[in-house]
Design brief:
The protein is of the alpha+beta class and 213 residues long. Helix content is 54%, strand content 7%. The chain folds into 2 domains: 2-80, Glutaredoxin; 87-201, Up-down Bundle (Glutathione S-transferase Yfyf (Class Pi), Chain A, domain 2), CATH 1.20.1050. It has a 4-stranded mixed beta sheet, with helices on one face. The longest helix is centred in the middle third of the chain and has 24 residues, at 124-147. The protein is globular. 36% of the residues are buried.
Length: 213
């Protein structure tokens, strides 16, 4: 396998965590987002969306979108499972992951922040305020989803990491990088700390990647 990623991309971070949990060690190809390497014709031919991550499988298939990649890995390498067996529990875990992937991250990714500056003329302070607003909106919901459900354990769902934790931890990391106030979210912070204590999560952290700056 070959993973195309960028050390600070939270979507690529998710896939690194999942690969580590599955005990898989792909070849890494680094696509520098801030230098615009994702816009190059060679990469656009691989992934027309010009996003990372992209995963080239052992049989040559090219997969995109972190959620699709992580679920593929879970289906092809089912142990340890990242989704519970019960359908309702699976739906809950997916809902937590999707709250990050669909409702928080798209509003705050690099291309949006660049557009706010270049096209709309917002300065860094205004862009950071935008970022923190949407983190607060999303984390308010996540905290309620996690704190008020008895199925929450050491991790988002029970006492073993799931798809939900794979998505939660990179978003917490991003929130910390932008100096968001996380004190209103003790359950989110506790779960993230428990996950980061595991080697699979720790080794996937942005600062531990060879392309980290």
């Amino acid at each position: 396998m070959k993973l195309y990623g960028y050390f600070r991309s939270s979507a690529a971070y998710r896939v690194r965590i999942a690969l580590n949990l599955k005990g898989l060690a792909p070849e890494h190809a680094f696509v520098h987002l801030r230098k615009g390497e994702q816009q190059a014709a060679a990469y656009a031919a691989l992934n027309p969306q010009k996003f990372v991550p992209a995963l080239e499988t052992d049989d040559g298939a090219l997969l995109t979108q972190s959620l699709a990649i992580v679920e593929y890995l879970d289906e092809v390498h089912p142990h340890p499972a990242l989704l519970p067996a019960d359908p309702a529990d699976r739906a809950r875990v997916r809902a937590i992951a999707l709250a990050v992937a669909c409702d928080i991250h798209p509003l705050n990714n690099l291309r949006v922040l660049k557009h706010l500056g270049k096209a709309l003329g917002l300065d860094e302070e205004a862009r950071n305020a935008w970022y923190r607003h949407w983190i607060a909106e999303g984390f308010d919901a996540l905290e309620a989803m996690l704190a008020n459900d008895p199925r929450t354990g050491r991790f988002c769902h029970g006492d073993q990491p799931t798809l939900a934790d794979v998505f939660l931890v990179p978003q917490v990391s991003n929130a910390e990088r932008f100096d968001c106030d996380l004190t209103p979210y003790p359950t989110v912070v506790r779960i993230a700390a428990a996950a980061r204590a595991l080697p699979a999560f720790a080794d996937a952290a942005p600062e531990r990647q060879p392309d980290a700056e």
